[in-house]
Amino acid sequence: MTMHASMQGTSVDGPGAPHVFSFAPNGDGFLLDGKPFQIRSGELHPARIPVEYWRHRIQMAKAMGMNSIALYVMWNYHETSEGAFDFQTDNRDIEAFVRLCHAESMWVLFRPGPYVCAEWDLGGIPAYLLKHADIRLRTDFASDPRYMRAVESYIDELIPRVRPLMAQNGGPILMIQIENEFGSFDSNPAYLEELRQLWIRGGIDGPFYTEDGIVQLQQNQSHVAGGAIALSNGNAAQIEAVRKAFHDVPAMAGEVYPGWLTHWGDAAFQGTSVDLSATLDAFMRKNLSFNLYVIHGGTSFGFYAGANVDADTGEYQPDITSYDYAAPISEQGVATARYMQCRSIIERYLSTPLPNVPAPIATIPVIDSNGVRRLMPRRYASLWDNLPAALPLADTVQPQPFEMYGQAFGFVLYRKKLARYAGGALDIGDVHDYATVCIGDQYAGAVSRASVPEHLALPLKAVQREPVALPMQHEHAVLEILVEGMGRVNYGHAMIDRKGLVDPVVLHDASGASETLANWEVVPLPMDASFVENLRPLCSNPSKPGMFFMATLSLDTIGDVYLDMSEWIKGVVWVNGRNLGRYWHIGPQMRLYCPAPWLKPGDNSVLIFDLHQTEAKPVSLASSLYDNSSVNT
């Protein structure tokens, strides 16, 4: 088979060596220092990978045959509260990630949004913008200056970090993407041009590119002046079609999907049967540029996993914590069978051998003399004995969403004293997104915005957008609604997705009379690191759901591990204060990934908050996401 020398690509020189990345005059492709250059890119998200594993994942991509890394920057991961930016701590140091790519002789496609989608909460846009009742997102200055002023502030923070890392300045960044898949959202050339001008004003005049599906691109003309075109779910035929429609504009397959995303409640992990071999072979044979989305997904740690709304049914579909994506490199960084297949296809077309595949990260032994190793948590603390102060009543006549109280993630408790209470039913409307209801110390039921399979809902009394039957209680009972905000919608026009109680709460009493409840106590519960670190080990009522449990994981040596939560119902897990993310017994994900750098030799604390369980259950250790590790092939 003929070798394509140009496909090997130019290596990244040491720091300070400038390069010229440009477009062929006739739009046939890309040029690096005047020579034809094929972009072979794999997508990695620094926010989803522990900083200690960044280099390993970059090396894994390189050993599969990539010469570039594409990366999203999640705006809300860096501006965690309005005006407060963090590009230094932990895995937020984007400059360090790009320099690691440079050190590994890998080029970079930089995808800073401001909207990224990415199955990430609100597509990366900060939730504080939703405090404005009439906010418009992803639009130009004239349509909503509040949004664009926030975007301007964000890009102004990025520019001095990015400018030295551009290829022409001796760095590895070849192109900057303007917005993301905007043609799937709207037609607004003014908005895209305003974004482009923000970069130009900061001294970065490109090269730029956009990303869209071919139909959306053609319908909404969502490319930018002088920019390249990247295609979502692109293939060789679509690149040819775009080249005919957009003369003199280079095109690439910007998101080639080797797997797919998974929602809570799906029957199984998605994307495991994708066969990319023919598509990949065509790219290599025709010397076309591409980006695998994703080559390695990682994990949406904490509360950052996003959600979709089904276009046909309107059903809310929150994403699981894992972003394994059935990608060639698994969530824990293992080269899957699919990885080896892709590597083999690419290597056939290259003139020099690929580097060896890096050794996998060590895992903790999960089998002991008694079989599968298990932790046995103990009841540790009740949420109800650890409530912070409520907000002033003047602010809470009607319950408001999280964002109106300045809270982005976690839980909020809405509490109301009921006069002359004698049972009935409670209508809390379209709760966002999951609520447990108590009358006094008695659990009444749960309401889920997302569908819950009937055989799993009944033990919890979980219903979907239906009134909760309330038990009889004494007069002056206290009604408590604990609401969990799950992922904000990250795609489409349902993105204005505020969390908490978004409708009035109506009590229908036994006589048939109805009352809209007002004058609430509201207790913010972001469940952040400070809150869990300062939990008091008190539990005055062990039968009331809303319980924290603690286990100790004792280790001689550290390694990656999964915690199997299949005997638990719904909640969150922290290890040594690190939030591993959500679990939910509706699956399909039952195991949460804990990377080795978050562990230490000796005793490690495992803290579990479960919305329903009042009795501890075992937590088994596992070595992979799947029950059968061969699923991701």
From TrEMBL:
Residues 547-604 form the Beta-galactosidase galactose-binding domain. GO terms for molecular function: beta-galactosidase activity. Residues 399-525 form the Beta-galactosidase 1-like first all-beta domain. Gene3D superfamilies: Galactose-binding domain-like (2.60.120.260), Glycosidases (3.20.20.80). Belongs to the glycosyl hydrolase 35 family. Its EC number is 3.2.1.23. The keyword Hydrolase applies. It comes from Paraburkholderia sabiae. It catalyses: Hydrolysis of terminal non-reducing beta-D-galactose residues in beta-D-galactosides. This is Beta-galactosidase.
